[in-house]
Amino acid sequence: MSNTDMNMRGKIIFYEDRNFQGRHYECMSDCADMFSYMSRCHSCRVESGCFMVYDRPNYMGNQYFFRRGEYADYMSMMGWSDCIRSCRMIPMYRGSYRMRIYERENFGGMMHECMDDCDSFMDRYRMSNCMSCHVMDGHWLMYEQPHYKGRMMYLRPGEYRSFKDMGYGGMRFMSMRRIMDSWY
Question: What are the b/e assignments for 98-127, b being 16+ CB within 10 Å?
Fold first, then answer.
């Protein structure tokens, strides 16, 4: 595999202990359950690409976006009480971006079509809540607070009929951002 192919795929290295100590596991794709490779993970290094990491197996629980860099003690950085249990590689994307956001579940209520970042649904659309969406193009991060703050959710192309049914019942999403190729 050439360096170009590896950079397009992405590579993240997980370490058992803080500051890149202890046993490690190299990952270049999605991993639904890290426990089969290591019992704990407290630091990681992203050598290429972008990844979403989750504090529960099967891409569930709290999510955090990691791009190229070192995360020597990510638990205190994110305020997690548990460690990484699964990860999903975010493919590099260079096309157009398009998403429809809806005020209610099952694509109900007010709808807005978005093609760029939005730092506040309320300010731009006078929309106090977003409970479903349809991602037509691109990869996105949706945040629970304006200005790209708070907990986040990774969205790839597809229909998301109910954030509540996905386990985000107590969250209100208030901003969103495109995952751009410049982040790689």
Answer: bbebbbeeebeeebbebeeebeebeeebeb
Rounded Cα–Cα distance for residues 94 and 92 (Å)? 7
Q: In what order do the strands lie in the sheet with 108-114?
A: 108-114, 98-104, 132-137, 158-160
Q: Buried b vs exposed e over 156-181: b needs ≥16 C-beta within 10 Å?
A: eeeebbebeeeebeebebbbbbbbee
Torsion of CA 33, 144, 80, 84, to 10 degrees: 20
Q: Which residues, in sequence order, are CB contacts of 177 under 8 Å at separation 6+?
A: 117, 118, 140, 141, 143, 148
Instruction: Examine the pLDDT at 81 and tell me if it is beyond 70.
Output: no
Task: Tell me the two tokens of residue 37.
Answer: 């490779």
In which residue are the tokens 């209610």 written? Answer: 104
Check: pTM over 0.85? Answer yes or no: yes
